[in-house]
Amino acid sequence: AQSVTQPDIHITVSEGASLELRCNYSYGATPYLFWYVQSPGQGLQLLLKYFSGDTLVQGIKGFEAEFKRSQSSFNLRKPSVHWSDAAEYFCAVGAVSGGYQKVTFGIGTKLQVIP
Amino acid sequence: DAGITQSPRHKVTETGTPVTLRCHQTENHRYMYWYRQDPGHGLRLIHYSYGVKDTDKGEVSDGYSVSRSKTEDFLLTLESATSSQTSVYFCAIRTGTSGTTDTQYFGPGTRLTVL
Q: For a surface tag, which of A2, A63, B21, B97 has the fewest beta carbons within 10 Å of its beta carbon?
């Protein structure tokens, strides 16, 4: 069974500072990994995804994530945070079995940005 | 934007009443999903569909049923609503059918309150 751990429930950063959100996964084979962002009262928006190939993945809004198989991690980064990045971020791991794609989500990390 | 709408967006109902939530997509995707989102739990899969009249259970399916009579519509019914079903419900579609590079995209959500 697959699982995702987001160890930080809440993170506060200053505007302009760098950001790293942690994500660890558990899955026996090569995982498909995702980061989604959710603004208050909104649905989830896909930031980026990793399926194979280059382990550094670029996404929208200036975000990137790095897949590290040895550490079972897929951490999300941004070099300079903007106030509009305040939101909740979800890491997810996907797997396909018999055509059924199961995606397991972490519990989310809520990001607060202070001026 | 994956062309997903959900209705209603907000609903308040009383314990014991049946409730139906609708998910509508405009891009003819085969796979559709219903999740619920609760604090501390992330998103959990209720039911999914892999075609017209083809549905299956997710991890939290008790008390819920689904129907898909047309490709574009996926209905979630709470047969007799309980307070534990107060939640935000998200519909998702999955692009593609191969599984290897498919991605799930989410609708805007329905906030349901059961009194």
A: B97
Pick from B56, B100, B109: CB nearest A51:
B100
B27 and B3 Cβ atoms separated by less than 8 Å: yes
In this prediction, residues A16-31 reach a mean pLDDT of 91
DSSP β-bridge partners for residue B47: B34, B57
Write the Ramachandran bin of A71: left for phi over 0, alpha for psi from -120 to 50, otherwise beta. Answer: alpha
Find the CB nearest A49 among B50, B90, B103. B103
- B-chain residues near A42 (CB < 8 A): 108-109
pLDDT tens sequence across A62-104: 999 999 999 999 999 999 999 999 999 999 998 876 666 788 9
CB contact under 8 A, B90 and A100: no
Handedness of CA B38, B43, B44, B49 (dihedral sign): positive
Q: Which residue type is seen at B27?
A: E
Please name the residues in contact with B14: beta carbons below 8 A apart, sequence gap of 6 or more.
B81, B114, B115
Please say whether the beta carbons of A92 and A107 come within 8 A: no
SS3 assignment, position A83: helix
